[in-house]
Amino acid sequence: MFLSLRDVTKRFGSLTAVDSVNLDIEEGELICFLGPSGCGKTTLLRLVAGLERMDAGRIEMAGKDLSKTAERDRNFGMVFQSYSLFPNMPVGKNVAYGLECRKWRREEIRARVDELLTLVHLTSEIEKYPSQLSGGQQQRVALARALAPEPYVLLLDEPLSALDAKVRLTLRGEVRKLQQDLGITTIMVTHDQEEALTMADRIVVMNVGGIEQVGAPAEIYGDPATSFVADFIGTMNFLDSRASTDGRVRLGTTEIDCANWRVEPRPDQPVRLAVRPEDVRIAEGSDSQPNTVTARVEWIEFLGSTYRITLALGGDENQKFKTELSANMMRDLNFSIGTDLPVVLPPERLWVYET
Amino acid sequence: MGLRDVNPGAVTAPAKAAIAASGISERQVKVAFTLMAAVPLVVFVLYPLWAILHKSFIHKDGSWGLDNYVYYFTEPKFITIVTNSFTVSIASTVVTLILAYGFAYALHRSAIPYKKLWLLIAMLPLFAPSLVQALGFILVLGRNGVINRVFGTEIDIYGFWGIFFSNTLYALPHAILMLSAALAVADARLYESARMLGGSSWRIFWTVTLPATRYGVMSTVFVVFTIVITDFGNPMVIGGDYGVLATEIYNQVSGQANFSLGAVIGMLLLIPAAIAVVVERYVARRQTAAITEGSVPLTVRQNPRFDAAMLALVVLICLCVLAIIGMVVFASFVRLWPYNMSLTLNNYDVDVQGGYAPLWTSIWMSCLAAVIGVVMVTVAAYVIQKLENPFTRFLYFLAILPAAVPGMVLGLGYIFAFNDPINPVYLIYGTVLMLAINTVYHYHAQGFLIATTSLKQISSTFDEASAMLGGSFLFTMRKITLPIIWPTLISLGVFFFMRAMVTLAAVIFLVSPGNNLAAVSVLLLDDAGETTQAAAFSTLIMAVVIVVLLTFQGLLRLFGVRNVSLIS
């Protein structure tokens, strides 16, 4: 394992920001720490960087303990949210900074700076000062500066969040391509799930100082391990229900099958049933299908190409869930607010979590 | 060639990735810096204060106890001196506050013309030692002053009124600067709503303006009070028989060589000054930002009648300042005041009290103080800001402690602490270097706060970015921090130079005939009745300060620095 974190813990006074985190990171992958603000993702990144001291645990790189190594000796590159380009130096000097710290020879530095600025398409801006660059350009310089000393690991702390939406989309692709081309092990912190889903090889979903789930983007979205992940990633409907027997749950008066159990099934225990809006199907015709429940149409929102329908299970105001329908289907089904509809909840697309 | 070949970014990275190792470790550098900040503060601030406290308990026969205090407290003269000190200081403080508030209000809340010019004139007393104001008042209102001579009146300026007027003039620029800072910013929305609600201008002033500046006013009151109660030069020149604490210390020590009593009075002077400083710091900390993100800056509206009144006030104050300072400059060209008022340059041919030597000593000492001051306060601010250290709280206290220590007390403390062959500092005792160090630590608090504010404005992520790239503490300081804050370092240097040129109270006990200072020379010339030569010397001091100030302001402009003010 390239980087491994063992029981890493960090406290700020009475607050435990990172609570015995265990994680293995492979060489060359882009791993994303994703979570709401205050979940400890930035603190965890800063622990890896060496900018914060651990209260307990170990961080190892290729089997070597890093806890006694100061941040400046780790040879990790870091890109900060606020760019943090040195305002008193032109672009070229910023990129050369890490090389000067390592006492590279002058001509080597020049060659390396050129190489990096070519990579980020900023060769013509070498003489400019950071204040003369746009936000996106500044962030590309920051990336070049971090990569110049050939770091073992690249750390990105919300690198795109200070940029406007359009630049963010372009840079997302650029950063990912650069990372894959260089094959550099990269940790990125973000609170933007779309960013994580599109860029990462693996995502670490964090909540209140701990890891909820680690997995590939499709895994995290398609098979959320906890109700927190289910709720945090994408949109998820939750319905109060009770466990029954033989892998079934009781929803009001109906019992339905459910394939994915994330809680020990004990009969009559209250559980949360989760289903994504795109997996909810309105039954067509009168042929009765398994796993069908009745729901009343509560609200219809027009979203352009689709409609979002809010349904109440068995007319119960406390058991609302949503689905999306295309305009075509809306025409075919032809219902209005107050209509009772037969709704199919496919067993393999249902998850059961504890309450 | 694939990118992977050019750029192996993994464990197999080349040896070049290793950070160049230097001879000394990062930890050693940090310890060295902490010591560099801490040791001088302990030696040159804490130890002299301890020495004067200790001395105040030592009896004539060498035993120790409270006798000196008992002796002094039972002396009726003492009660008079304390009463005098407080009476004149409170009177000066109140009048200074009212005048300065009016002045600052006119500058920031009215549409009068030539604001920069008025401010510059009002700052003039800042560029002269604190006895030049008294000298000016004597020339205007003294026994042989212009008024008495021309109108045949017999106004007696010496005593309470002399100290009151000259100290008010001396403290005015400080108060104007502080109140300007408080009045410069305001949220226009508050004033708009007040007007919409039908408030009269007078009512708006009492309910919006004054409350918004109350912290500034309180800070000013305490700072001004400290300045006037600890001032030595003006009461020395114009006080006559009206004894105050600062002159009493000098008389006890220099006149009667009664060091223990000097120490006792020093401790007594320390108490009100220390209380004022503590309260001021407390008030300053409670000041919350009056301006928030949504604030709309207040733009001044024309109001002919109000503007005329404000202009009258400002012009009147400026005329007073110009009259007093101008009279000193004028007197410096007069042949024999007041008997022969013909003009001459003879006074600049100073032939007594060491001639020009003290001026050169002063300039040399001020240059030393500027360099030492910049280095020491920057190191102290750097260590306290950037190094996590168990000592930093204590260091911060030591760094701002000098604000509470009157110059006389610090100077006297230096005698007790260092005039002793056993002490290693004795090696530089009586040298210009000692004077420079004394000046630096006398004004350490103000310089330190300027440096700290400047360092705080640099985002801490620059340090982190540098560290992640492999930059050491020293490398980061050399390549990033210092290049960013250099304009502040220049302004710090000018600040220490200015203070060193005009300082009197702290160095009065430390000068020796061999290395007299310009401000002391003025005092001695005046004392010897050489009024016109004293005026010439004062004029030269002011000229040097103003030339240095303008030169550096010009240099900063030349380098495109506009946000750093040299008057602070």
SSE diagram, text form:
The complex is a heterodimer of chains A (355) and B (568).
Chain A: E1 3-12, E2 15-25, E3 30-34, H1 41-49, E4 56-61, E5 64-65, E6 76-79, H2 91-101, H3 106-119, H4 135-147, E7 153-157, H5 165-182, E8 185-190, H6 193-199, E9 202-207, E10 210-215, H7 217-222, H8 227-232, E11 237-243, E12 248-251, E13 254-257, E14 260-261, E15 270-275, E16 281-282, E17 292-302, E18 306-313, E19 320-326, H9 327-333, E20 340-344, E21 351-354
Helix pairs in contact in A: 2-3, 2-4, 3-4
Chain B: H1 3-6, H2 26-56, H3 67-73, H4 76-109, H5 115-123, H6 132-141, H7 146-151, H8 160-184, H9 188-196, H10 201-212, H11 214-230, H12 233-238, H13 245-255, H14 259-286, H15 304-331, E1 334-336, E2 340-343, H16 357-386, H17 392-400, H18 407-418, H19 432-442, H20 444-456, H21 460-468, H22 473-502, H23 518-527, H24 531-558
Antiparallel strand pairs in B: 1-2
Helix pairs in contact in B: 2-14, 2-16, 2-18, 4-8, 4-11, 4-15, 6-8, 6-15, 8-11, 11-14, 13-14, 14-18, 15-24, 16-17, 16-19, 16-20, 16-22, 16-23, 20-22, 21-22, 22-24, 23-24
